[in-house]
Amino acid sequence: MNKIPRRIREADIDALIERLLSRGGPLAERFLSAILPPDLCAPIRTIARQTSHRGSKGTIDLEIVLENDLHLLVENKLDAGWSITSEGDPQPERYRRSVEALLSRGVLAFDVLVAPMVYLSGSRHAASFQGQVAYETLAEGLGGAEEQLLTAAIVQAERPYEPVPNALSGRFFAQFEQVVQSEFPRLVLKRNPNGGDTRPTASRTFYFEAKKMLRERPEVPLPRISLQAWDSNAPSASAKFMIGGWGRLAGCAPAPDSVTAIGAYLRPAGRSLGIVIDTPRLDTQAPFEAQREAVREGLQALERLQTWWNDTGADMARWHMQARECNS
What are 147-162's pLDDT values in tens digits? Predict the structure, then answer.
């Protein structure tokens, strides 16, 4: 395994759990016996990460299918809070609905919360899951870098992350918001997730409210909207619409003419498909005034994407059909 990162992400633990359980053996047996009665335990057939909820938005961290067709829907929590969809569906409720949807089809299913003991004992939502497995149970007797990663995650959970305020970042974001409100009223910024004016040094992305800005299209998932000050994974900063679950189709069909006409292009970003316009790089640690025109250019790019979506975004439904045919 690679060197343990200074701050561990839940995705790191997702990958570790998948790797450990895929090996089978005593650890997999210990995991299953912590959740299921002996007559329901069976060897693991498949493990999939980030599968879709049934009847709700959002994804399941790990979906485990046993040889007896029993499904385990696993939510992994390290130290993050519980998410709520824009429709108001809390995370535990989405798992319950997915279990009910599988049961209605005759598929036996359980929802499971995997987390450090301090999280399991401290969260009022833990009891709503049918099964709970502590990180400590997984780490027992593991040894090596894998045990070290789980141990570091347990320690991290005991010291929850609190962003360290950066005055320069906070000032830049505040001035950015003023420009949005005064000059780009059709764009709606999301609230600061850190509360108040706190912005850590690592804050380099501005997020926008898709439901308040975009027309809903039944054939196309509502995208996430962002303007990045800079992107370490791309040659340029960018204004982006991100359509979840479509990333694997990038490159399977040419971008619609209406996309290229506004200076945008398509590119994959993990599991999502990005509809992207390159924008000037912004430095949140430098004075805002010298970058005001670059900020405007980025916001103008977002407005072009917004207008395109509301007028001709249905083109992406046709693109999706074409891309799926080429990918099949």
Answer: 999 999 998 888 755 5
Global pTM value: 0.56
274 DSSP β-pair partners: 242, 267
Q: Are 296 and 179 in contact (CB under 8 A)?
A: yes
Q: What are phi and psi of 267, to 5 degrees?
A: -155, 150
Q: Quick check: helix, strand or coil at residue 95?
A: helix
Angle between helices 292-312 and 167-183 (to 10 degrees): 50
Q: Which residues contact 279 (CB under 8 A, 6 or more apart)?
A: 227, 228, 236, 237, 238, 239, 294, 297, 298, 301
Distances (CA, A) of 125 to 42, 52, 76, 154: 28, 21, 13, 19
CA quadruple 141, 145, 146, 151: dihedral sign: positive
- φ and ψ at residue 209, rounded to 5 degrees: -85, 100
Check: CB of residue 132 under 8 Å from CB of residue 169. no
- C-beta of residue 204 within 8 angstroms of C-beta of residue 239: no
Q: For a pLDDT cut of 70, what percent of the chain falls above it?
A: 91
Residues 193/39, Cβ–Cβ less than 8 Å: no
Looking at per-residue pLDDT, the higher value among 101 and 203 belongs to 101
Sorted by sequence, the CB contacts under 8 Å of residue 273 that are 6+ apart come out as 242, 243, 246, 247, 249, 250, 266, 267
Instruction: Give the number of C-alpha atoms closer than 13 A to the C-alpha of residue 158, restricted to the C-beta side.
Output: 9
Cα(142)–Cα(21) distance, integer angstroms: 12
Predicted pLDDT at 105: 96
Q: What is the CA radius of gyration of the chain?
A: 22
